[in-house]
Amino acid sequence: MFRVRAGFRPKLVYFILNSILYSSWLLGIFPFIYEPQKRRLHRSKWLLLYGFVLNSGLLFLMLKHEGETKGNEGKLDVFERNFVLKQISLLLGVVGVLAICTIYVRTFWRSKNLESIYNELMQLERRYFYSNAVKCQTFDAYVIQKGLLIVGGVASSIVVHFGAPTQSLPISYLIVVTLIKLGTFLLAIHFHLGVAFIYRFLWSINRELLDLASYLRVHPSGGSSRIRLLLKLYRELVDLYGRLTDCYDYQTALMMIVFLAANIIVSFYIIVYTVSLSKMSFFAMVIMFPLALLNNFLDFWLSIAMCDLVERTGRQTSMILKLFNDIENMDKALEMSISDFALLCSHRRFKFLHCGLFYVNREMGFQMLVTSFLYLLFLVQFDFMNL
């Protein structure tokens, strides 16, 4: 599925995708082995065991260090000044650990389903999209932005831990926390890369439908077999996106909650430091806190934008099919295939419903951002007398 093409941009995309793959293997969160003879992925029990042991060990080391330094929390000036911030930070830490455990366990538990989904995606590209593939600029841009956000997420962790006022942490603890955060980022990116590949296939189908519509205006009797093939591919993509969403629904929802909660806490940190303590350093004001906020916001919104893009591209398929209505003297078999295609598009849409509760699109993303701002406003109002 990862192939290098000529040009700097495609090579950068190839490098980022392979870096994500090999990093996932090293961190034990991609328990699949590629079999070149069969050209498919195979789930490895040894990799599952390796991932479980490694990530459990990292979590244990992090919690062990937190337990050893629990008595030193009061040394932080911000916690001495604001008890609410201390309690909320503790609550977010507990929720974060539980969310990470749930994400890992859920992903490992559904690894057999993921094996089938990944293999079907690889088979689709190899059989139908590889030979006449066209560069998809949107897909390339998404992969590059995601790669930069991974680097930014790791960098923000390092900057925050080194730059936090009156707080000194050992290097070993910083490495453990960085590896855990990197692993969580990569697990979330696995889902969004799967969505990106589905988008690229859907974009290719729409592009070919446009070419067929132009061709049939001149030759109205041809193209029925190709339409039936595209209908089959569209049906398989709808099925794959539903299964992929089902495997990652809880993980994605938890990641969104943790990102938004972290942004609320970081914003409240800034308010307490600047208003209560009046000693926010230039480094913390310009680099440390803004970097963490910006990276979390961009990662959250880019994930929303990709799911919304797939949904809008699916709606574009229905609009493209309407172009065939203007073609005169169309073959009956071709007309029937187009009607079946339009019926499928109207009844089975690309909508990412997570946990049976909410759809992932721009409207939902905007509502979540507004809600997080309101929670920050309520928090400030609740603790206004202590600021």
Q: Kindly, what is the distance between the CA atoms of the first and last residues, rounded to a whole number of angstroms? A: 54 Å
| Largest sheet geometry | 2 strands, antiparallel
Structural class determined from secondary elements: mainly alpha
- Averaged pLDDT, please? 78
What gross morphology would you assign? globular
* Oligomeric state of this protein: single chain
Strand content: under 5%
DSSP summary: helix tally:
11
Q: What are the segments in which pLDDT stays under 50 over at least 5 consecutive residues?
A: none
Biggest sheet: strand arrangement = 1-2
C-alpha Rg (nearest Å): 24 Å
One letter per element, helices H and strands E, the order comes to: HEEHHHHHHHHHEEH
Give the SSE map.
Elements: H1 8-26, E1 32-35, E2 40-43, H2 45-68, H3 77-81, H4 83-109, H5 111-129, H6 137-163, H7 171-218, H8 224-277, H9 282-321, H10 332-347, E3 353-354, E4 358-359, H11 362-382
Antiparallel strand pairs: 1-2, 3-4
Helix pairs in contact: 1-6, 2-7, 4-8, 5-7, 5-8, 6-7, 6-9, 7-8, 7-9, 8-9, 8-10, 8-11, 9-10
Would you give an account of this structure?
The N and C termini lie far apart (54 Å). The protein is mainly alpha-helical and 387 residues long. The strands form 2 sheets. Strands 1-2 form a two-stranded antiparallel sheet. A two-stranded antiparallel sheet has the order 3-4. The protein is built from 11 helices and 4 strands, in the order αββαααααααααββα. The longest helix is centred in the middle third of the chain and has 54 residues, at 224-277. 78% of the residues lie in helices and 3% in strands. α5 packs parallel to α7, α8 (224-277) packs parallel to α10 and α9 runs antiparallel to α10.
